[in-house]
Known about the structure:
The protein is an alpha/beta fold and 453 residues long.
Amino acid sequence: MSKQVDDFMAKVAERDPNQPEFLQAVREVVESVMPVLDKEPALKKAKILERIVEPDRAIQFRVAWVDDRGEVQVNRGFRVQFNSAIGPYKGGLRLHPSVNLSILKFLGFEQIFKNALTTRPIGGAKGGSDFDPKGKSDNEVMRFCQNFMNELYRYIGAWTDVPAGDIGVGGREIGYLFGHFKKLQNSFEGVLTGKGLNWGGSLIRPEATGYGAVYFTQEMAKARGESLQGKTALVSGSGNVAQYTVEKLNQLGAKAVTLSDSSGFIHDPAGVDREKLAYAMNLKNVERGRIEAYAKKFKGVTYTAVDPKADSNPLWNVKADLAFPSATQNEVNGKDAKNLVKNGVRYVAEGANMPTTPEGVRVFLEAKISYGPGKAANAGGVATSALEMTQNAQFASWTREEVDANLQRIMQNIHGAAADAAKRYSQPHNLVDGANIAGFLKVARSMFDQGVV
Ligand code: NDP
């Protein structure tokens, strides 16, 4: 089987040799689904795998804007519309200096299977820009967003492609993007999700990815006859996903003891309780400061600067029961994964997309800990975006309780579908194979039904 995988990957790599993140994401899916395809000759003959690794289209454009000093700045904008076999394209926009086509293709590719798992009718896409919002004024962010939308608006629409937030894109950016789309198109439609509550947003959308990751972990714990009550958790990142992961952990009687940003992490053995979380949210969302300030504000907290080039991250060497990588891709390597397992972590749920390297994934699977890959564990965000689209289409606003009940049910279904596929096609504990296969089969069969397009 590994020869078949290697041969297939050699062809993908020949086309895009300089896209390491994309190749990493494709290999993981191909390793899971190749054995299944051997039992599905019709899908094999229709070359579904060869077709699914090619985006429907990848759009790249110039974003020119003027900063507060009157200087012209030039950034690069992208939208990768990967697959629309089961619904309109759906996936976030990322604003970060590291953004390039490889990263957006990896994210768009993963999004296809994640969106299929949510049980909602949404295809896969991703977009963004190498614009760095750090240190920019509100006016600069607004001017950038408007110029980004000056091009993007041609390709999106409520029934075509519905972007959302991701790293560097929260409520503020979605507001500027939505306002400018409406101005350009003269159409008030559900073209973006993560909107403000007064103008078509859904309750629970900001919370959904973090809450969903914890609900998913609750399902993994139930499968072992356990609960999250009294457990200690490591959380990385301090943005949207990390913040609401901590909030839900607190509500369920667990305790988060770390938070981080791209400079370093804080360790708070007493736990990031409600009051401290409110401080961290204000620090990151309003003051746009560094997490180091948390350690100066509260007693008994240590701050450790992290060198991104070091061979491991000391955050993953803190003793705990649960781990929620919620910052960025490849933030947990093989050594970090070994440290987590050695220190007794038995549940890992990925809030971020592809935060664990292939070596790290192998460590988790060999140790047979409960490991929820991002595709499944962080799908609550996009699932709730789809609930926002449903409300927009109905001109309705659901209550907090209604949306939260839907989110919990969806996370239970995702866990159930991944666990069933793992049992049927792989090993019962392997939710990586389970999530990849369950997501893939739904999209592959839809592509097959719709002919060669
Ligand atoms: P935010 O921008 O709100 O927060 C990102 C956090 O990660 C910040 O603390 C940031 O630190 C840190 N971070 C970013 N890049 C790096 C890096 N290269 N090294 C170390 N730390 C880094 O983003 P989100 O919380 O929305 O997204 C976090 C992850 O979750 C991403 O992988 C995203 O794709 C994924 N995700 C998000 C969803 C959503 O609904 N928002 C849905 C599903 C997945 P700093 O402040 O220093 O930049």
